[in-house]
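User: Can you predict the 3D structure for this chain?
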Amino acid sequence: MLFGMTTSLILQSVPLPKDCDIDPAELHTVSDSHRTRIRAIVPPTTPHIWKPLSDAHNVRINKHVYALDLIHTWAQLATHISLESLVILGDAILTAIARKPGLANGRTADGIYQDFVRQVTELPKFNAKSKCMIALAFITPRVDSPMESKTRIATTKYGLPPAVTNYTVPGATFSNGAPITLDLAWPEFRVAIEYDGDHHRTDKNQWRRDNDKRELLRHHHWIIIIATAANMADEPSQAELAYRVGRQLALRGAVFDFTLTATPLDELARRRRRRI
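Assistant: Here is the predicted structure, written as structure tokens:
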């Protein structure tokens, strides 16, 4: 049986978008036509039609179960989630593919992203393809969590220059020799955002590791700004975070057009197209 939609994400351990209008508790099957669709009674399933199915590289879960490949799953879900969630989901899928050798097939994170863009672009017309093409301009590899994606999107919507995701700081290592990375970084200006989830406060080892890392980076003249769920809770909180980061970037010589209100991603995409 071939599963798609939210069931495919669950089977492949990809975080579900919170605003998805599909019940994740249901099992969703996918076929390429009404003639071949699967509707099981036990357990009950919801069938879907995905015409480009023949081009998908589906993933075998066990002897009898397959999941629609993650790139096609992303495109299939585009009509069921917001544009911002589509970008966040795209980030998560790129990371999931990169972490599974069988899916990565030796490709770098950037190579996976390029293949993602190519495959979606080459898909025949489908509902929400135009929405997917907008989202492709904002997804990025090397993002460790949906909240990191949300933080990155917030800085983008207020006009900050693009950040480097999961940036490895040259010449900076932990005491055990492991490289030091930053969630979002503007290396030219040595400004960065670190997103701290709850475990960063409740796990003593994680807290000490974070503290040591940030102290070392401050000695290397980095400015580290900490973001938490509270900074992403609503638009005013996101605006305040974007202002704090933007101010530090400007003080270090960055030139960009900061906006006092968030610009929707589809509008940002239109502006970018006009500049080309």
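Residues 113 and 162 are 16 Å apart (CA to CA). Residues 235-251 form the longest helix (17 residues).
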